[in-house]
């Protein structure tokens, strides 16, 4: 299959087709007036690296050479993500497991996500929260947030991930900040998975108690990104790519990266994700880096969505490649994976997993 024509038709429904036929959409590469533009070449470097990555060129010898190196280079990372690496997956997994044990021991960190709101202003055609999907919307009050967090804290968990839909109107920066202040009463580590912000807004949330930020780029292929994100702030590709750097500029201790594997060519997206993290680690050596590895899954009102060719072996390959390329990085595994897959990945390379998960609002 062509690397440039890797379209997942399972995402497209009649409503999307109708929207696409209506004509011109806003320029996905042009910043909106309220978006901070930072002076950084990281995005350009990542895009250029991904553009030049031809995984069909790599051989078994390249993979073995990569495994022989104590410190993996970007070239080694390319080989480990290539199809040539799949027959050596057991050997790769053994190497990844050794790296995990060396840097993390047998520790597995647990956290729970709490959805405090699910209003969204974006039209992402693969997402169940998108503004066109007819689902029940809600937002917790501060009292309800406190009650939910108190209940979670009784379980003994010390880390929480606060999530909202991507709506600045319904989930303001101030609202999220108050949620962070409440969380600080109960938890040692507070993460955020919310809409991308400017660096001063990240600084405010850090002051309120937030420690790290997760932003999913979904796909790094800008043209494909445009066809998947039809409206809303999320449509603006460069603003989203640079979110982690703005978070670090705002004082956040850590940032997490992830592509939604199966939206586009998963090998190129996994490579771009790794390079994005690698470039920022070089630029901000103090930053705590982590990866999430979600695969595309069915959503409410569209059960036909599938992750194309990202099967369990390919997912394991990606996770192991991340571990070997960036051995100190945390790796989070989605609870949308079945227990057997999660357990296998935890034994080999994952370091963090969520517990008590509910995507409903106020369901803790």
TrEMBL record:
Which keywords does this Swiss-Prot/TrEMBL entry list?
Answer: 4Fe-4S, Iron, Iron-sulfur, Lyase, Metal-binding, S-adenosyl-L-methionine
Recorded hits in Pfam families, A to Z, give: BATS, Radical_SAM
Keyword Nucleus recorded = no
Record-level Gene Ontology MF annotations: 2-iminoacetate synthase activity; 4 iron, 4 sulfur cluster binding; iron ion binding
Q: Which cofactor does it need?
A: [4Fe-4S] cluster
Q: Does the keyword Thylakoid apply?
A: no
Record domain Biotin and thiamin synthesis-associated: where? 292-364
List its EC numbers: 4.1.99.19
Q: Record's PANTHER family?
A: 2-IMINOACETATE SYNTHASE
The record's listing under NCBIfam families reads: thiH (TIGR02351)
Report what the protein is called.
2-iminoacetate synthase ThiH
Q: What is the lineage of its organism?
A: Bacteria, Bacillati, Bacillota, Clostridia, Lachnospirales
